[in-house]
Amino acid sequence: MTNPLIDPFARPISYLRVSVTDRCDFRCVYCMSENMTFLPKKELLTLEELDRMCSTFIGLGVEKLRITGGEPLVRKGIMTFFRNMRRHLDSGALKELTLTTNGSQLRKFADALAECGVRRINVSLDTLDDKKFADVTRWGKLAQVLDGIDAAQEAGMRVKLNAVALKGFNEDELFTLTEYCAARDMDLTWIEVMPMGDLGNEDRLDQYWPLSDLRRQLAERYTLTDLAERSGGPARYVRLEETGQKIGFITPLTHNFCESCNRVRLTCTGELYMCLGQEDMADLRAPLRASDSDAPLQEAIRAAIARKPKGHDFDYSRQAVDGQMTRHMSHTGG
Ligand code: SAM
Ligand code: SF4
Fold first, then answer.
1. Is 4 within a domain?
2. Is residue 1 domain-resident?
3. What is the CATH number of the domain that holds 57?
4. Cβ neighbours, 10 Å, residue 267
5. Is position 178 within any domain?
6. The pTM is what?
7. Tens of pLDDT, residues 14-55
8. Best CA proximity match to 159, nearest among 113, 109, 107, 122
9. CA triplet 216, 218, 223: central angle to 5 degrees?
10. Ligand 2 midpoint to CA 107 (Å)
């Protein structure tokens, strides 16, 4: 490897999240509107371009790759991409290949993913109630996701659940979800909902439930031990002494993780976002398509990393966040 990627604040950039599609088989109310217009196919990076892009980042020191979307497993041919990424795990350049999925396609793909070297996956699931699941995802079927989780575990992958904390929606499932995960030896991470003001879903199920409150409720039943472990991202972890599980709390709007931020995000059209909370991005598709040589792409990546901001400047008021976050999670991949 030549010079690895180090940003102006001396943070090594070792983690790339890649959105491989903006499409999804669900329409979660906090993420998408019911009638989404998706990007024309030609705007998307092809599977070959995704490979070249990821391989270039790996050549520059990225050691962890998380594939996301939209729903990554609905991208046609995506297993070819995963199979090809395996060569970087085999060479030792890539330490971890993982994905975040809604779980709907796991029964179909779990074995193949495990064969590609995927050892851990994140599955997003906010409720264990059929009716509530149908309400929050609009198009999803709970049984299919639960079966997908079983398939992933049968394939030998570790599963972590991600749940968006929604007041008046899954507050009453705090313990049910914890117990479901404990019974399956799964960790559980709660995500504070980011208000997406332009979805037209206001007053639906996107009510803010502060994680401080969730944590307090958890502590009424379990003994919580803070863990020093940090992922370089906006998550903090505790261990529940009674179950041995790790519980994570992701508060994307707080600043307290910026100093150790090791990640950047690539959209399915090849835009690189250097910070989840800022609009600045670099178009990497143009240099990728302009030349068969990877040199211009490498230069564009280095130039982008040199612009990575120290931290984001979310205003804590919901109003300001609404105005600021004009792009959806399905675009940058959360
Ligand atoms: N479709 C996959 C899934 O749902 O896991 C991957 C993409 S999804 C955009 C990634 C994560 O973002 C999911 O865990 C989802 O719950 C979360 N997410 C989407 N919109 C959100 C919002 N407004 N606030 C907080 N988390 C959100
Ligand atoms: Fe699809 Fe994931 Fe967004 Fe739900 S959160 S609509 S599953 S991309």
1. no
2. no
3. 3.20.20.70
4. 26
5. yes
6. 0.93
7. 999 999 999 999 999 999 998 999 999 999 999 999 999 999
8. 122
9. 100
10. 18
